[in-house]
Structure formats: structure tokens, C-alpha cells
């Protein structure tokens, strides 16, 4: 264990410490909650070394588009990636600011035209305006919920021009049968949104043995899209 997560050097990790650390993976609270539930096998809110390694492995699975499940643990995946410039122990790979944006210029022009046609207010589109465009793709509602969640990078419930381009890019990928990732790859983060990620306190990740049925956090993206189809977790 590094001192970052095992501050008391007791060979175990408390939920609050693990939450701050795992948040740096860039995964959503919902996915991290699922990872915690699978790793904390006895539901005590504490991970031993073996359980913590399971959590890290599941983070790596999620970051590479695999299902967060114990059956994924045996699949070959690269090590998990965490963003923390202050620590040499955490892998951040190439500095994200150096990676070219995955959205090509000619595609961005098309996405901008759609964006402008939806009458943005102050350069922003509300979920209500984006919803018909997403539903028009005929993709499953759970996939569209994840598209929204990944593209609303600043979590304000609105999409600006760059965030909308990310949403459209993910929709077109999904239509080409490419899996929508569980977390936004560095290359897809718009240059305008690239900055060091700060982690304010522990995230609201409350592990409990009964929490597998309940979402850990209410998700507006799923809410705006699940008008007809019920969502299974």
C-alpha cells in the first residue's frame, strides 16, 4: 500500500481514504460505487490489501470499456490510470494537454451546425434540447445516459459547444458498434476542458451491503433520457 491510501499504515483502507484515491481514476460515482461493492466482500466499509487490488483491477477494466464484474478480473487489461500530478506513484501517462483532440475538424464543423440549430442559450444547450437528438439515434437508453454523463464534463446539466461535440462523437462511435467507454479517454476531453483535476474531499461513496440495487447518486442524464424505457443497473 502507498501512504496515499493507507495513512495509518494498518494494512487496510477505509472507505473515505479509498474514495478520494479512486475518484482520481476519472470514473463516475455510479461505477466507483459498483467497484466498491464488488471489492468490499464482507461489507464492512474497509478493504484489505487483496480487496484493494481487486478494486484497482476493476478500475482498469472500467477504464478499458469492460464490464465492472468479477468475471472481468481474469481479462488482460493495462494498469489503471489515475490523474495526480503531485505523486510520482500514480500513472497519468502522457500529459493530456499534449494529446490531440479525437474530434476531427471536419466533424466538429458538422456537430457545431447541429448545435447552432438547437438554439443554444448563452452558448449552452439544456438536457431537454439535447434529448431528442440523442433519442433520434435509436441507441439504447442506458447507452445514451452514459453518453450524456461523459459529455457533460463540468456536470452543470448543460452542454456547451465542445461538450456537445463529445456527445455526438460518442453517439456516432456507438452507431458504428464501438463500445462507449466507462470514463472519458484523455484524447476525447476537449482542449478547453483540460486542466488538473482537483479532488475536493471524499466523494459520496457510501458502501453498504444493500447498495447494489440502489444507485449511489441520482443521475440527471438517465433521468432526462429514461422517459419511456426503465433503466436496469
From TrEMBL:
<feature type="domain" description="EH">
    <location>
        <begin position="107"/>
        <end position="195"/>
    </location>
</feature>
<keyword id="KW-0479">Metal-binding</keyword>
<dbReference type="Pfam" id="PF12763">
    <property type="entry name" value="EH"/>
</dbReference>
<dbReference type="InterPro" id="IPR000261">
    <property type="entry name" value="EH_dom"/>
</dbReference>
<feature type="domain" description="EF-hand">
    <location>
        <begin position="27"/>
        <end position="62"/>
    </location>
</feature>
<protein>
    <submittedName>
        <fullName>EPS15 factor</fullName>
    </submittedName>
</protein>
<dbReference type="GO" id="GO:0006897">
    <property type="term" value="P:endocytosis"/>
</dbReference>
<dbReference type="GO" id="GO:0030132">
    <property type="term" value="C:clathrin coat of coated pit"/>
</dbReference>
<feature type="domain" description="EF-hand">
    <location>
        <begin position="139"/>
        <end position="174"/>
    </location>
</feature>
<dbReference type="InterPro" id="IPR011992">
    <property type="entry name" value="EF-hand-dom_pair"/>
</dbReference>
<feature type="domain" description="EH">
    <location>
        <begin position="1"/>
        <end position="83"/>
    </location>
</feature>
<keyword id="KW-0106">Calcium</keyword>
<dbReference type="InterPro" id="IPR002048">
    <property type="entry name" value="EF_hand_dom"/>
</dbReference>
<dbReference type="GO" id="GO:0016197">
    <property type="term" value="P:endosomal transport"/>
</dbReference>
<dbReference type="InterPro" id="IPR018247">
    <property type="entry name" value="EF_Hand_1_Ca_BS"/>
</dbReference>
<dbReference type="GO" id="GO:0045296">
    <property type="term" value="F:cadherin binding"/>
</dbReference>
<dbReference type="GO" id="GO:0005509">
    <property type="term" value="F:calcium ion binding"/>
</dbReference>
Amino acid at each position: 500500500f502507498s501512504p496515499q491510501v493507507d495513512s495509518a499504515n494498518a494494512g487496510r483502507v477505509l472507505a473515505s481514504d479509498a474514495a478520494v484515491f479512486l475518484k482520481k481514476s476519472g470514473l463516475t460515482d455510479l461505477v466507483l460505487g459498483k467497484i466498491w461493492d464488488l471489492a468490499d466482500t464482507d461489507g464492512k466499509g474497509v478493504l484489505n490489501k487483496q480487496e484493494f487490488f481487486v478494486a484497482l483491477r476493476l478500475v482498469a477494466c472500467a477504464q478499458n470499456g469492460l464490464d465492472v464484474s468479477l468475471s472481468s478480473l481474469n481479462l488482460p487489461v493495462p494498469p489503471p490510470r489515475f490523474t495526480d500530478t503531485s505523486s510520482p506513484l500514480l500513472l497519468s501517462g502522457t500529459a493530456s494537454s499534449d494529446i490531440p483532440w479525437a474530434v476531427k475538424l471536419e466533424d466538429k464543423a458538422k456537430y457545431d451546425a447541429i448545435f447552432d440549430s438547437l438554439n443554444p442559450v448563452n452558448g449552452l444547450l439544456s438536457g431537454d434540447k439535447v434529448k431528442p437528438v440523442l433519442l433520434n439515434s435509436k441507441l439504447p437508453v442506458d447507452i445514451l445516459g452514459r453518453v450524456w454523463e461523459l459529455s457533460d464534463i463540468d456536470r452543470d446539466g448543460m452542454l456547451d459547444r465542445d461538450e456537445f461535440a463529445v456527445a455526438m462523437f460518442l453517439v456516432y462511435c456507438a452507431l458504428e458498434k464501438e463500445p462507449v467507454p466507462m470514463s472519458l479517454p484523455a484524447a476525447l476531453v476537449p482542449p478547453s476542458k483540460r486542466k488538473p483535476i482537483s479532488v475536493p474531499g471524499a466523494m459520496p461513496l457510501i458502501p453498504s451491503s444493500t447498495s447494489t440495487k440502489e444507485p449511489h447518486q441520482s443521475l440527471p442524464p438517465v433521468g432526462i433520457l429514461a422517459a419511456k424505457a426503465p433503466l436496469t443497473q
